[in-house]
Design brief:
By secondary structure, this protein is of the alpha+beta class. 36% of the residues lie in helices and 17% in strands. It folds into two domains: 1-147, Elastase, domain 1 (Roll); 181-344, Orthogonal Bundle (Neutral Protease, domain 2), CATH 1.10.390. Residues 3-7 have low confidence and may be disordered.
Length: 344
């Protein structure tokens, strides 16, 4: 048996009070005896949540989810379905592998930093081929859980990067992998919630006592000690974090922010730049096509620039504003053609 597809769904809509987004509707799976489970089988790509520590489903009698230990995975389930729906509806991409494969979130997970270590850190989220792990933070409060919409979207995008581009998770290709996840995490949030405050901060909804626990800032990567210029200030060169995949992601992150919103300034290479924003909808189209059609396993920022330009060319043409501004945005972060050209 390679894969089992249910012929009959048992999905039941219900409103839940999420950790960050007020009341939202999720669908759960019904069983006999009025038992319900926090899984969504309404689509071929089934979304599941399980308790990582006990390897058990979240299920109970009655389709209400008011206790915090149930609201947390219910929040994840809502974000999982929003993410799946975004890629299916906007990019015609189904499931993490474009084959309608489902995914499972292992909730209340613990993490550690290397081979042979004992998991003990609740502050992370990760993803691998249909399986996601979500930490619930240091406190018993829901606010510091690692299941905000942008984080769940970020993790799902790793599945796309691995499946379509096979981006090696180290060095520049690893930084680009992380960046595409940040790009679509925040893009999904914008698509679902509109123009929210602090949209370009990654994980900004997580908080402790009302103070945001965001981990990166696409609008200003330097604020979190990430670079905004290729091999400029704050560029990570040491072996830790696979040579800085979470740090050097700041370069393409800032490029995408400028492409969508515009901006002018002087980068770390003393290059003066000006980018006229094309808006998030054209920017996300170019980003997705670049990722799935043109990125390769050992991509560098130089080849990423070529991938984005090829995507813009396919979608809008060489004489389009979109094509020119992709070139300008990459110039802004210190990446240009070998001849030093940019398009104004």
């Amino acid at each position: 048996v390679i894969r089992v597809i249910q012929l009959m769904a048992h999905c039941n809509p219900v409103s839940v009070s999420t950790s960050f987004y007020g009341n939202r509707t999720i669908s759960t799976t019904a069983f006999s005896g009025n038992v319900f489970r926090l899984t969504n089988d309404c689509n071929t790509a089934v979304s599941e949540t399980v308790n990582w520590r006990h390897n058990t489903y979240f299920q109970k009698v009655g389709n209400t989810w008011t206790h915090d230990t149930m609201r947390a995975p219910a929040t994840t389930l809502w974000a999982m379905e929003v993410t799946r729906s975004y890629f299916s509806g906007v990019h015609s991409y189904n499931g993490w592998d474009n084959g309608n494969s489902g995914w499972r979130s292992n909730e209340d997970a613990l993490f550690c930093g290397g081979d042979g270590c004992i998991p003990s850190d609740p502050n992370n989220a990760s993803y691998y081929r249909g399986y996601m792990w979500v930490g619930w933070g240091n406190s018993d409060a829901l606010g510091d859980d690692w299941n905000s919409l942008d984080i769940i979207g970020h993790e799902f995008t790793h599945g796309i990067s691995d499946t379509m581009a096979h981006l090696v998770y180290a060095n520049e290709s690893g930084a680009l992998n992380e960046s595409f996840s940040d790009i679509f995490g925040n893009t999904i949030q914008a698509h679902q919630l509109g123009s929210v405050a602090n949209l370009w901060k990654m994980g900004e909804d997580r908080n402790s006592g009302g103070t945001s626990l965001y981990i990166r800032n696409m609008e200003d990567p330097n604020e979190k000690n990430d670079p905004d210029t290729y091999k400029g200030l704050k560029w990570h060169t040491t072996p830790d974090d696979n040579y800085g995949v979470h740090t050097n992601s700041g370069v393409q992150n800032f490029m995408y922010y400028l492409l969508a919103n515009g901006g002018a300034g002087t980068n770390d290479k003393s290059w003066n730049y000006k980018v006229e924003g094309i808006g998030i909808i054209p920017a996300r189209r170019i980003a997705f096509k670049a990722l799935v059609d043109y990125m390769d396993a050992n991509a560098t920022h130089q080849t990423a620039r070529s991938a984005w330009l090829s995507a813009a060319l396919d979608l809008y043409g060489v004489n389009s504003a979109e094509y020119r501004q992709v070139a300008n945005a990459w110039f802004a972060v210190g990446v240009c053609s070998n001849g030093g050209e940019e398009f104004i």
